[in-house]
Amino acid sequence: MKPTTLVRLVNKGKKDFVSMWDSKEFVIPKGKYKDVVYGLAEHFMQQSSDLVVEEIPVEPVKPRKVVNPLEEKNRGAAFAELE
Fold it and tell me: pLDDT tens digit string along 24-70?
């Protein structure tokens, strides 16, 4: 996994996870999660065995409404295969 991939860092411990990052306090309450990049999650997992990385569930994308009537039909030569 790339260090820049967004992941869910879950605190499965019995107390809050508290650490510092970029001169700021970083807290994950017990039983809660925060979405962070994988590189940061690895850094925090070295500090506590109660932290677990999970993938963020994919949400379906709703199709947008067509507001341009020309877009609905006759897409032209460049997009003729689209229906």
Answer: 999 999 999 999 999 999 999 999 999 999 999 888 988 887 676 66
User: pTM to 2 decimals?
Assistant: 0.67
5 in Cβ contact with 37 (< 8 Å): yes
Q: Which two tokens stand for residue 66?
A: 């067509």
| The 3-state secondary structure of 7-47, one letter per residue | EEEEECCCCCEEEEECCEEEEECCCCEEEEEHHHHHHHHCC
| Of 43, 42, 48, residue with least CA distance to 13 | 48
Q: Between the CA of residue 16 and those of 11, 31, 58, 67, 79, what are the distances in Å? A: 8, 8, 27, 49, 53
